[in-house]
Amino acid sequence: MNESKIERRYIGALTVGKTSKVLDRICQAVKSCQQTRTIPLIKVEKKPRGQFYVFLAIEGIAGDPLPEPIRNVLRLSGLKNYIWVTPNDIKDMTGSGEIETQGFHTLAYQPLWDRHVGDPFDLPEDLSDAHHDEAQQQSYDRLLYWLSAVAEGSWEMFVGACKALRLTEDARRILRRLVLLGHLECAKDGSKWSVAPPALALHPTQPDVGFLCGQRTPRLLARLREFGSVTETPQPFQPGPARIEIAGELDACAAALNLHPAGAVAMRLAELLPSANEWQETLARIEKPNTHTCHIERWDGRQYADCPDFYQRDDEYHGASGLYRLTREANAFRLALYFDAARQRWLKGDWYGLRFLASQSAGLEQEPVHQSTTNELRVLAAERWPLLYERALALASGLLPQRATDNAQAAWLVYRDIPAALTGTLAQKLNLQVKEHSRA
Amino acid sequence: MATYSEWNKAITEYFVSGLPAGEIVYLSVDEDALREIGQRVFGETTASGWVEDFKAAVQMKCVTDGHVTLDDIWGIGLDGLPRGVAFLAAMVLAAHSMAEEEHEEAHVSDTNYFTRLQEVLGFGERGRPPGLREAGAEESLWETWNHWLIKRGWLPSAERGRDTINRYINYPISQSLLRAGDKERLERRLREAERAGQLRRIWDRERLGTWLRVNASRFTSRHLQALLQEPDPRHYEAVAEAVYSVYAAVDWEHDAASPSHAPVLQRRLSAGLYRAEDSLSGAITYYLYPQQPRRQQAESALALRKGDETHRLRKERPGWFFPLPWPEDLANHTPYELTGDAQFKQVALPERGFWILVRDPESEDSGVFASWSAPQVGQEFLLLCQERYAAQLQILKEEGLLDWHSEFPLTDLYAGWIEYRECLVISSHWNGVLPQEEDLYEALKPQLTASIHLTGGLRVADQSGGGWLEGMSPTLTVRTFNDWPVSLYLQNITTDEAGVEFEAFPNKPRDLPPLQPGIYWLQCTDESQRIRSHRLRIIGWEKLENPSPKQPFASDGGTFSLAGAVLKTKEAL
What we know:
The complex is a heterodimer of chains A (440) and B (573).
Chain A: E1 9-16, H1 19-32, E2 41-45, E3 51-58, H2 68-77, E4 83-85, H3 87-93, E5 99-103, H4 137-150, E6 152-154, H5 155-164, H6 171-180, E7 184-186, E8 192-195, E9 199-202, E10 209-213, H7 218-224, E11 228-233, E12 243-248, H8 250-256, E13 260-263, H9 265-272, H10 276-281, E14 284-286, E15 294-299, E16 304-306, E17 311-313, E18 316-318, E19 322-328, E20 334-340, E21 345-348, H11 351-361, E22 369-371, E23 376-380, H12 387-397, E24 402-405, E25 411-415, H13 420-430, E26 435-437
Parallel strand pairs in A: 9-13, 22-26
Antiparallel strand pairs in A: 1-3, 1-4, 2-3, 2-5, 6-8, 7-8, 9-10, 10-12, 11-12, 14-21, 15-16, 15-19, 17-18, 19-20, 20-21, 22-23, 23-25, 24-25
Chain B: H1 4-16, E1 24-25, H2 31-42, H3 50-62, E2 63-64, E3 67-68, H4 85-98, H5 110-120, H6 139-151, E4 155-156, H7 170-175, H8 182-195, H9 205-214, H10 222-228, H11 233-247, E5 268-269, E6 271-277, E7 284-290, E8 303-306, E9 309-312, E10 315-317, E11 320-321, E12 336-339, E13 346-347, E14 354-359, E15 369-370, E16 381-386, H12 390-398, E17 402-403, E18 406-409, E19 417-425, H13 438-444, E20 450-455, E21 459-460, E22 467-469, E23 475-480, E24 486-492, E25 500-504, E26 510-511, E27 518-524, E28 534-539, E29 555-556, E30 560-563, E31 566-569
Parallel strand pairs in B: 1-4, 5-13, 22-28
Antiparallel strand pairs in B: 2-3, 6-7, 6-15, 8-9, 8-12, 10-11, 12-13, 14-15, 14-16, 16-19, 17-19, 18-19, 20-23, 21-22, 23-26, 24-25, 24-27, 27-28, 29-30, 30-31
């Protein structure tokens, strides 16, 4: 302990009036007498009644009487008599014991403890995608450049980057689109991401044209232009990084730029994909979540709704299989999970994938439509496929699906460059019947 | 025998390898450092030893016909390193040996210093050596070294003296932290304190640093006292680091009857604490977070043994390994055995009654806290402490010095510990409040009156300390206890253009002026503020590189994995 220090001491003085006005008057006096260093703190009882004490901390002054500048402060503050008190006295001299402090040269304290940015897979209830905004195209391209340079990071960093680039879309949707286009990969729980290796993928319908997936930087694009004709195509309807196509010496280009020759990846992926049941086994599991501390809702096919029939007793959960949303009451953190009632397990993953599982477990049938003359596949937006399967569709063209509305006002997702063989393979894996249209 | 160029490279790498961006670099060359560098890099020495080999290499390069000639060591070499580092190291070695003299005056005599430098350079006279007679002839070497450090993301520490007498010799003297004899004096004092029960064997740098501050007056050497009372926390961290390396090298089981002449090597790897919280369940877990050894020159082969299992330590970010994957008992300080390195033999959870943890600087909203750094002015932190500190904390709160959002007593493995969440030091008026728990009080008490916070924008990391992308600069906030505007000066140090001066209102975010790519130095010009300077780098989009991720993820398809468009079957893997 340093003996040379003069301890902070307090004087107490009786006053009356509204606390805020008394404090304002004393603060003004302390400032006008330039005594903010000597009187660093004022204490007063919270919500006092009638006459009450106000306490002034005094530093750097030994003994009594008080020097003239401090007495000036008391005079200007309308405080006539004072007594020396200890911090313990202060508690005894205030009726409620609740004390308000007003310091000089202090930082405003505005704590924000729960700063979570939400679960990356928990898509907002409004499932309609934003319209394409050309002004934002450059920002999406820049987002991919940044992701490529940083290489890996947390979900929170991703949200921060979207915010810095003033992207107006929900970051969860942007993340999903980047995964769909083969630019990004995520940890199973979504907490972290890493950029995908730079690769040259081929269209299944045009094997002499490649498009870029994964890491890309302005420098890489400049070098790419040395190897052939490069075409930049904005994403249709939904915002995302532009597709970069190259036609020319693809093998030489891939070798020179260290691009992984991914080939017709959409076809290979479709062939290797597991069945929907097998795919379930690859999803992350949440072990025995405590649902007592959460608000629970279930997806009813159109929206989340309260599910009073669901309950947990010890480690046993009682309720129907389906897509649930758990909201932790303590911090409002939300998590979308698929509950498999028979196997008593909670699965985590891409929101559309979980909805797909819920839809299948409810026995709902889906019927995508393939148009062989245009190589287009149409899937109802309300029946969107799990991310890994939809990826096989997006990697066929390097483009996100377009939106279309039919005469019944149903929203469809339209995927391009999808040959019948690709459709057939995927539909078989997902246990779907495809309706074939051959007319234009 | 190693040449000047070889020593130049080895010394440079020794002082910066593995050092996180933003750290202050001291070229604190002494005989121990030269022996360690020699053993690590060159292996074999001549009969005269590493120190003499080094001196001979410098003399061969820089002394011609009885004169010092610096013509061949100006600027940056083909290897990208400043050519003059080994010569500067010789200057610091002279400063280091000068302090063997017990009489330490307020101003170091330049005659004493140059006498030592003459000896290092092989002359036997007094005063500036021949060839260096013009005062400040070597200053440009220091400037090159400082600029090189800033460009690579570190902060220089060598600076001119303020008085005429030490204007130039302050450069080497400012670098010699622990001088000859200091290490032995320190070791003796540390052993005495340990025997008296004042100091524990398994402390970390921060805890030792706090103890040293509280006990600075008990050190008899004026030089040590001055070091331990250093007001700038970042400089003090370097001092604490130097003392910690002596502390962590002490073999407590054996008495050091006489000072040894072997290099003082740190045996225990430093470690911090890493806190993660499950967002859904709220479960909190603390992990041991090993620090990378400073001055590590090659990829680490360090592995940790736990029971029969061996766990490889992998680099997580500059300065840190990944946290160990199992929850750590905060009361267990039994060291884990380390393998794979000749120097580091163990790592342990330091014995501490409290931990000050800050949010992940790379991902503030992730809910992760760890011992990355001491909080700056205006930076919230999490205080994890034993229950016995509650009374002290309450006093600090009542006296308007500290505030927090909530208290959260922990249970199970962490019973007896309390988390004080979102703590903030709200006042600088700490001197009037006498401490009950000196260690906690000293650790929390602010040393600076303000700090510069750069937030937002788009930042990338690279080998040169990273920076913000052009057009995506951060927002600047000066967090200060004072309520008047702060004058700042921002200068592009990669060009010779004059800088811009501007004001920042206290605690109010403001945009920076538009910045071209380059490296900027942001300084406070207001002498009433104690505030650190900042390095700010702006990177052009066209300069972006695409490094591979250290922990790449892939989508799991059961029989295959898919990374973007790159498909691999598990058989192929």
